[in-house]
Amino acid sequence: MFHTHQQKSRQLQKENIFWEATKTIGLSLVIAFGIRTFVAEARYIPSGSMEPTLQINDRLIIDKISYDFLPPQRGDIIVFNPTQTLIAENYHEAFIKRIIGLPGDKVEVKNGLVYVNGSPLKENYIEDKPDYQWGPVIVPKNSYLVLGDNRNNSYDSHYWGFVPRNKIIGRAIIRFYPFNRIGFLN
Q1: Which residues, given as ranges, of the chain have pLDDT below 70?
Q2: pLDDT score recorded for residue 127
Q3: How is the chain split into domains, by residue range?
Q4: pLDDT tens digits, 28-77
Q5: What is the pLDDT of residue 14?
Q6: What local confidence, expressed as pLDDT, does residue 40 receive?
Q7: Is 65 strand, coil or helix?
Q8: How many CB atoms are closer than 10 A to CB 62?
Q9: How far apart are CA 166 and CA 175, in angstroms?
Q10: Using CA of residue 170, residue 171, residue 173, residue 179, what is the dihedral sign?
């Protein structure tokens, strides 16, 4: 009888451990999915279009919640889903670029500078001055004009148009890899 009680106790203990582990794993998955879906996610940089700011294979944390409270700002580095034009060109992966033009802005590229509403942007983050002329264009309502920091080697708004607000996934805020380049992105 004593052995039977011990055996039942051990069996219940094993079942409790299994049940607790299952609940812990399940809850962890739900929390991870919720965070990745609604709060933040990790991304990597697949191309040189944002050099020198972001290098190929940099790993970033994307903030997916702040734009629920504040609108995107000029200078923000954003991740966005492909626009209809890009989808038609068979692009299906997310892009990363810098916001240059806000809704209603007049944007033009001429003489190696980007002008927003007639004033040249101060851009200490670009690889080289743009070697093309483009615009002027007016950024539509609820849309953004984005350019890569590597202006002459970036497939961006000056080729395919504007990013609708509903395509923006979030804002790149932290580089967490490589370790020697860890830090916040401005």
Answers
A1: 1-16, 18-40, 186
A2: 85
A3: 1-38, 41-184
A4: 545 555 444 544 678 878 899 999 999 999 999 999 999 999 999 999 99
A5: 64
A6: 63
A7: coil
A8: 21
A9: 24
A10: positive
Measured in whole angstroms, the distance separating CA 144 from the mean position of its chain's CA atoms is 15
| Residue length of the chain | 186
Scanning the structure block, which residue is given the tokens 């451990």?
17
Which residue has tokens 């203990």?
A: 13
Contact 89, 155 (CB under 8 A): no
Cα-only R_g, the chain: 24
Asked if residue 120 lies in contact with residue 107, where contact means CB atoms within 8 angstroms, the answer is no
* Residue 9 · residue 2 · CB < 8 Å: no
Catalytic residues: 49, 97
* Res 35: pLDDT: 47
Question: Among 87, 111, 90, 98, which residue's Cα sits nearest to residue 145?
Answer: 98
At 11 the pLDDT is 65
pTM of the model as a whole: 0.80
Q: State the residue for tokens 């001055």.
A: 129
What is 41-184's CATH number, 3.40.190.10, 3.40.50.920, 3.10.20.30, 2.10.109.10? Answer: 2.10.109.10
Q: Which of 147, 136, 145, 150 is nearest to 49 (CA)?
A: 150
Distance between first and last Cα of the chain: 71
Q: Which amino acid is at 15?
A: E
